[in-house]
Amino acid sequence: MARLIDALRKLPGVGPKSAQRMAFHLLDRDRAAAEQLANAIHDALTGVGRCPSCRMFFEDAACRYCTEARKATGTICVVEGPADLQAIENSTPFRGRYFVLMGRLSPLDGVGPDELGLPQLGRILTDEGVKEMIIATNPTQEGEATAFFLAEMAKARGVKVTRIAHGVPMGGEIEYVDGGTLAHAISGRQPL
Question: Buried-most residue among 13, 27, 58, 101 (CB within 10 A)?
């Protein structure tokens, strides 16, 4: 029981009490769901790999984000994680290539360019006909530092660099937007 609770605590956002409730629920009320969960985790661990080019998870013979049609667009969108890629894919018309950093620069945590695969990204920018790199990192301190580093890397290779817009959300009211977001919106304003 303690091993199960400890294992559940490894999930993001799950504390000791939540892990205990989950364990009790699975063991007491829904053993069939527990079995299904165990099988799904096993299948994912054995059947899902990481693309050697874009670093996204994939389970087919080839990565669907690294097709020739996507490469032909000449654009690559750099994101911090798989969930960011999925959000862009599901919500936008962008159908170029991706590169998944699996994190952001954080020297205090020991995360540098090598851990994010930046030497690999550099080779892609140099050798694979990329004309534009879209930086889609989060607007945190580490995300902004990562964006700056990426921009310098791309510019050194003659690749056009763009950054996703940050600011007032659709349907938002300016008077309720925090100062940092409003400052980003004003500094990143676009001609109309």
Answer: 101
Strand partners, 135: 78, 163
- List the alpha helices (DSSP H) in 48-105: 68-71, 82-91
Give the global pTM: 0.83
Phi, psi (degrees; rounded to nearest 5) at 98: -130, 160
Residue 55, phi then psi, degrees to nearest 5: 75, 10
How many angstroms separate the CA atoms of 38 and 62, rounded?
26
Percent of the chain with pLDDT over 90: 74
What is the arrangement of strands in the sheet containing 132-136, beginning at the earlier edge strand? 97-100, 75-79, 132-136, 160-163
β-partners of residue 49 are 58
Yes or no: domain 2-47 corresponds to CATH 3.40.50.2000: no
| pLDDT, averaged across the chain | 92
